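User: You have something folded?
Assistant:
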Amino acid sequence: MELRKIAPDRVEEVRPSLNTLGSISVLKDDELIAYGALNVFAEAVLVVRPETTEFARVKAIRSLLNMATDACRQLSIAELHTFTKDERFAKFLEMYGFKTISEKALSLTLR
């Protein structure tokens, strides 16, 4: 862990790894005010043609999830995320180990 003084009341903690690009602690008089980390994560984007049979859709999704999880493991990525508004699909994904982590997902477009 490397600490660099950025300003009189701010210290940056640099801990790069495959999943964490870095983190920052903001201190004032040696008291932690805030902490932030920039993490990399994988998102599974699953698009399924609704006209196909349920059997074919389930088989296709299983294949996509297997490929995605294998790729994440090979890259040492700790988590795989997917986002859906469809409660039925969310329940289906829970059968494969996905867990609901938040009621809201927020995104900031940078370009």
Remarks:
- Helices lie at 54-74, 87-94.
- The longest strand covers residues 20-28.
- The chain is about 25% helix and 30% strand.
